[in-house]
Amino acid sequence: MKKFTVMQGLVAPMDRANVDTDLIIPKQFLKSIKRSGFGPNLFDELRYLDEGQPGQDCSQRPLNPDFPLNQPRYRGASVLLARENFGCGSSREHAPWALEDYGFRCIVAPSYADIFYNNCFKNGLLPVVLDAQVVEELFEQVYASEGYALTIDLENQRVQTPDGECYGFEVDAFRKHRLLHGLDDIGLTLESAAAIRAYEERAREQSPWLFDAIR
Amino acid sequence: MTGQTLYDKLWQNHLVEQRDDGSALIYIDRHLLHEVTSPQAFEGLRLAGRQPWRRDANLAVPDHNVPTEQRERSGGVQAIADPVSRLQVQTLDDNCRDFDIVEITINDARQGIVHVVGPEQGATLPGMTVVCGDSHTSTHGALGALAHGIGTSEVEHVLATQCLVQQKMKNMLVRIDGALQSGVTAKDVALAIIGDIGTAGGTGHAIEFGGEVVRAMSMEGRMTLCNMSIEAGARMGMVAVDETTLDYVKGRTYAPTGQMWDRAVSAWRELHSDPDARFERIVELRGEDIEPQVTWGTSPEMVVPVGGRVPDPAAIDNDSKRHAVIRALQYMGLEAGMPVTGIHLDRVFIGSCTNSRIEDLRAAAAVVKGRRVAASLKQALVVPGSGKVKQQAEAEGLDRIFLDAGMEWREPGCSMCLAMNADKLGAGEHCASTSNRNFEGRQGFGGRTHLVSPAMAAAAAVAGHFVDVRDW
Ligand code: SF4
């Protein structure tokens, strides 16, 4: 997994509440058996005017000119500014994969759906929670000034605006540690292999019906 | 010490390691797999040279992509017309073979939607931790299990370690006392709760459903309720174990028998919240107040009773809410303030892990029996949740009732719930659906979904528009 320490990135607005994972990456693209290549279909139904199909050459498709990601001023954005309950709906990890593949490294929103929030950390993507009022102000600033970029400092848990305003954010220690160092979750858990085996031995004693039924 | 909630007990029973940073290593008893969210996880194992930690903890079944038409289905994997779907189902078969994981394959009589198959086979049991790369894993909480959806990285993590790194959720109790009116079902209860607390109302919480209405519910009804906890923002919903639970589990293929059954039952009887347990949040509803529900918009919280009207944005003060309503009305092609019964339908879908169990099909069949679906309808699909449900329904003659009414009777799978196979809505079409999500494009590009109960969907199929099933 990629490390996340400090980044500065152009901000793109996703100005609606309850953006669900079907909207982030529609289901026809879930048929892929790969982890990469979802970027061109991020927000497919909003970004293009036609219905997207897997395996299509997206550069030939009609773009929706009203959608921010299609506007030149947001080209190369790596921070997505969003509204409350971002990422609700299905558990598909294709949603963070698509965001990451497109080039986003950070999302800033007042709140997220639980599974999506969790999935982001597995993919080097930092979901920052800021107060709804602050997010509102950031939206105004993004619209007002072209080239608007934010600095996201995970170590110090801080978002900094171009005019020097700083906002702190919360992130739990374990997730922060993993993201800062780009650590592999499975490797970390396997360090506890002995504890897992000891647990299994106890469970086998107490609840033997939980074992060996399916074989 | 104060009492524990059901969730506290399940959590405590599966704690492998509590860490100083607040996270915990939780043991997973049952891992269910399907074809959409597992390929990249198996690929990850291969790349790292890892093997599954415990093969007997896993059970796989293809469901999202499988064709539901008899003709295409009968040829097995090779006959799946869509090459991308075929590759995904084939990849699941290959991975299960390579990693020695038990799979119920496409034309096995037990095949079906993973959340219908798990409880039905006794693969998910009370007291278990159950995960699956699918958000509706919350369904299995109906058995008194700790069950929730996970992403693909976590699928790989569970395969490799049999554990998950978790943060403990807050406790929330949704209590529904009283009794439901006749014609009102678990689906209406679920939608009424979401209408009340919103789609983010349960975020960060584990929900326990309780009260007289839940105690009186069948297991099928409880599964419908828990299934939709994710639509209320909660990863997991659960119901305490009682006689209904035990009666349901007894005799299932993978359930314990004999002496082991007795031991299990005595452990399972502990699976309820203590009388003095503390919940961070309690929501209360009265059963009598709940009416049949219909969603009019593009989020499950955009729901009204069948006698109600589509909202008028002009009457909404909050800016962001008003905009959401305007956008939803536009997408749904509805006029502000129109009665819900005035919505005309193009298709009807009875199925999905929310409502495709035998009780759901019986309720739908009772409504359409001896009637015909409206001539204005393009299609009315009935898709049983599993091969077992299909067999049972056919033994009861339900298939004849549907066919005689002009409905289609299909092979089990997710079908039009998310339109990953050939079953989908056309742009602009309105569908009365017993599934769980009415998001934009969920049932097909430009499709317009209205979530309802099976009885309401069946009545709507006959009438061609929504009607109050209580007047049926
Ligand atoms: S029936 Fe629908 S909600 Fe349920 S698992 Fe299948 S696609 Fe998901």
Structure in words:
- The complex is a heterodimer of chains A (215) and B (472).
- Chain A has helices spanning 21-24, 44-47, 94-102, 114-121, 132-144, 173-181, 185-190, 193-206, and strands at residues 6-14, 79-82, 106-109, 126-129, 149-153, 158-160, 166-168.
- With 215 residues, chain A is of the alpha/beta class.
- Helices cover 31% and strands 15% of the residues of chain A.
- Chain A has two domains: 6-183, Alpha-Beta Barrel (Aconitase, domain 4); 184-215.
- Chain A has a seven-stranded mixed sheet.
- Chain A is globular.
- Chain B is 32% helix and 16% strand.
- The longest helix of chain B is centred in the first third of the chain and has 16 residues, at 83-98.
- In chain B, strand 3, helix 2 and strand 4 form a beta-alpha-beta unit.
- By secondary structure, chain B is α/β, with parallel strands linked by helices.
- Chain B is globular and about 55 Å long.
- The chains are: A alpha/beta (215), B alpha/beta (472).
- At the A-B interface, helix 4, helix 6, helix 7 and helix 8 of A face helix 2, helix 4, helix 6, helix 11 and helix 12 of B.
- Iron/sulfur cluster (SF4) is lined by residues 63-64, 113, 115, 134, 136, 352-353, 414, 417-418, 435-436 of chain B.
